[in-house]
Predict the 3D structure of the following.
Amino acid sequence: MDLQDAYHSGRVFHCLGHFTLCRCDQQWLNLLMCVLRDSPKLGGLKLDQYHGSQADQPSPARRRLSSVETYLRHFCTGGGVKDEGDWFYSREWWEGGHPVSQSTSTKGNGVVSVVAHPSSLPSRDSWAETERWLENRYMEIMGRDRERFKILGYQWRSLRFNDDTRQSTVKVMAACRVLQPSSIFYMQQPHCLAVPYLKSMVSVGLASLAASKYDMRNAAIGKKQMRILCVGHGGGSLPLFLANHILGAVVDIVEIDPVVISESVRAMGFPAFSVMAATGKRALPTPDVIDQLMWRGIHERLFLYESEAKEFILKKNQNNYYDMIFMDAYDGADIFPHSLWDSDSLFVKALSERLHHEHGTLVVNLHSDADISDLDRSNEGAPGKYVRKVGKAYKKGLMENEGNGLVFACEVPWLCNVSLVVSRGMRSEGRHRDKIKSNLMKASLEVDQILRLPFPCLDYLKTGLAII
């Protein structure tokens, strides 16, 4: 029986938690991709080996998908790096906490505060290893006898506007020199994304870029430069995560509020050397020893500008194209400004010029007004009107003169958000959702194999997808 006859498109296995698949049939890979796509709660997967006379015969699917098997080994065994930003730990920072810093914004964000919460990870038995890492880094940088360091602990720190809007959450390490216990410094943990919508933006963005035939492997190891723009800074976990995991990433960050910038550096452990002055040069001519200790190899590729997004994009070098643009810019009232998605605005027109014309990918974090299943309806009176309206505006402003491309939205698990994607490099596949989703899932496996992120990108693609 053909797979299309046995497996009906659109079926969702809401209760499937564990699945065993035999690979003796030539269509095992296609079936696997369908099950992964349509099983949002799948947590256990077992692949039986070939049996009988087929055991020693190489499968064409097996030959062409070694990268898939690498991911499946991680998926089946629970291997890989532990995700300290797993949503399971959100109970540690979602409520309560104590304020460690507070300032008043002059840019409409009201009272900007940073609230601290204790973190259970990393556990104390791993602190000594981190202390040795700091000591070795110090000796490497300074070229002299090793300095001793002490880990004081780890905290979640949340940036809030007016005590109502939780703008961002990061994990911070506090440490000091043993001989100078009052010299406490804070280091934001660059491997940790605490909020699901950030993981969704990273996952769908990188998968879309990989599906556009972008050379992800050479960018990952620093042989190819990946130009990234982040509009909206918050605590800075997104640009820091990207620069940490992609050695070729060069990240421009635009933040309108100087209070947000200062709080992210002072209270949330973001690299101080990344801050840019109005002259276009670094605010700090050279990083100090502790900054080099924490961030050498990363902070040189981060450029944090205080500017309106429109002013920045209009002034930016005309020959500087961005491979990826991330948009997460909400004000003190938790509103995404219309000026950032108005298709007729100077900002969107300039954004269209700066986004790479072959594979450029824009990812926007949006509050969702509907379930993902409602978003690709054409009826403007149907639920999802706001997300469709924003998506169509970007489609008009960024895709009107492009021969290829795709606009779609992915549902964010656990939160009422969607990641809206404008991809200039992906094919529309006749707006066939299953084909598009399958292409993205295969690309996400490639991303997982290359970057070894602490979470599988696939988890943020199988939640639901709508074509705009």
Summary: The longest helix spans residues 433-451. Residues 3-64 form one domain.
